[in-house]
């Protein structure tokens, strides 16, 4: 049922699509355009929802990132970063490389998040999403994991400094949000919760349940590592078991969440075995928590998700649908959307909102995986 008493923001502009490393790079913002047009063709996303991004300034970026790093990104934007500097700042590999005007395009991602945060805090909107953001790997002084500036971390710091908020970050991306974690590891104004595939087998290798923060931030970092090939039931059980007690204990003023959809079994970069069932349900769980604990204030980011045709548009659509109070979709996708995009897709597009599961494999170790996941979850819960 729609909630007409609230309003929702949706950060978008065509310029956001220019955050692009190369034509062959797995991080492809075309997934944002596909999702935006799907929501528009459904009739749910209207012009009044759109929040245009701005370019974040150096003072805002410096809430997390070092001055020398920001200047290095500027030099890289013009192709004048030395080889030694490129190595120092994490811009010398195949994953996170230099591209033209990268400072401007990266700062725009951050500025979109800050504009949405301002709109939420001044009650222009109750909640909102920034699906083109969620760059949670970037470190204060180093690019990392497809991420130049960490819009998630900057937004959290902005909410703390400008609005004196206690911020809870809920990160359900398959990859651990290392950049966000380390940015607040000694801070007690933000609690960083991440449920992700264990770093034993997946980038970035961090996110052990024993990583709990330090100094005054001890206890304000929460990691729930999941075994490879975790399926829907185990993911959702572990998530539900842990998240509400943590929210209730921390008592946030606002929730920030990262909705990477790379937990899906068709994602080419990860090893989890979830389906659209989990991806549809997660934003509704977080929306309900915001309604219960933060007067509805929640800012949802995108994040990972590298099957941009079969998975991302259908999954991310439900982030916005959860925020506006619409039920999960069923039936056929809009014919207009299918007709337009099938000619560009390298595969047959899904025709309905249902996960086809034609090549889904049941994992024989399901019971063992579930028991291991719950063991870590119960260990974490014992601290609250």
Give a structural overview.
- It comes from Staphylococcus equorum.
- Pathway: Ketone degradation; acetoin degradation.
- Keywords: Acetoin catabolism.
- InterPro entries: AcuC, HDACs, His_deacetylse_dom, His_deacetylse_dom_sf, Ureohydrolase_dom_sf.
- The structure is a single chain.
- With 384 residues, the protein is an alpha/beta fold.
- Helices cover 38% and strands 10% of the residues.
- It contains 12 helices and 8 strands.
- Strands 2-1-3-8-7-4-5-6 form an 8-stranded parallel sheet, sandwiched between helices.
- Helix 1 (30-42) links the parallel strand 1 (8-11) and strand 2.
- Helix 5 (102-121) packs across helix 6.
- The model has no long low-confidence stretch (mean pLDDT 96).
List keywords for this structure.
8 strands, 38% helix, 384 residues, alpha/beta
Gist of the model:
The protein is of the alpha/beta class and 384 residues long. 38% of the residues lie in helices and 10% in strands. It has an 8-stranded parallel sheet with strand order 2-1-3-8-7-4-5-6, with helices on both faces.
């Amino acid at each position: 049922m729609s909630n007409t008493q609230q309003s929702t923001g949706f950060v978008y502009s065509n310029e956001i699509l220019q955050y692009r490393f190369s034509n062959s790079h797995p991080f492809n913002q075309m997934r944002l355009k596909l999702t935006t047009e799907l929501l528009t063709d459904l009739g749910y996303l209207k012009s009044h929802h759109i929040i245009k991004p701005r370019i974040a300034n150096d003072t805002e970026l410096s809430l997390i990132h070092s001055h020398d790093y920001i200047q290095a990104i500027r030099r890289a934007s013009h192709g004048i970063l030395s080889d030694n500097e490129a190595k120092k700042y994490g811009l010398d590999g195949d994953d996170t490389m230099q591209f033209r005007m990268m400072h401007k395009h990266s700062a725009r991602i951050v500025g979109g998040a800050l504009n949405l945060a301002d709109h939420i805090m001044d009650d222009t909107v109750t909640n909102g999403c920034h699906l083109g953001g969620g760059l949670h790997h970037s470190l204060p002084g180093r690019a990392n994991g497809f991420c130049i500036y960490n819009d998630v971390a900057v937004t959290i710091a902005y909410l703390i400094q400008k609005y004196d908020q206690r911020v809870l970050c809920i990160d359900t991306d398959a990859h651990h949000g290392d950049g966000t974690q380390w940015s607040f590891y000694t801070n007690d104004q933000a609690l960083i919760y991440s449920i992700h595939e264990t770093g034993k087998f997946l980038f970035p290798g961090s996110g052990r349940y024993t990583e709990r923060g330090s100094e005054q931030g001890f206890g304000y970092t929460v990691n729930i590592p999941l075994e490879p090939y975790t399926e829907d039931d185990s993911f959702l059980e572990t998530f539900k078991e842990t998240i509400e007690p943590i929210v209730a204990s921390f008592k946030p003023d606002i929730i920030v969440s990262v909705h990477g959809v790379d937990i899906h079994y068709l994602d080419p970069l990860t090893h989890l075995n979830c389906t659209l069932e989990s991806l549809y349900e997660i934003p509704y769980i977080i929306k309900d928590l915001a309604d219960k604990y933060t007067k509805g204030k929640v800012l949802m980011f995108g994040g990972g998700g590298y099957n941009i045709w079969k998975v991302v548009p259908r999954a991310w659509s439900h982030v916005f649908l959860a925020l506006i109070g619409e039920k999960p979709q069923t039936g056929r996708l809009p014919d207009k959307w299918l007709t337009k995009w099938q000619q560009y897709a390298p595969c047959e597009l899904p025709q309905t909102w249902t996960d086809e599961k034609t090549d889904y494999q049941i994992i024989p170790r399901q019971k063992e995986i579930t028991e291991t996941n719950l063991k870590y979850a119960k260990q974490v819960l014992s601290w609250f």
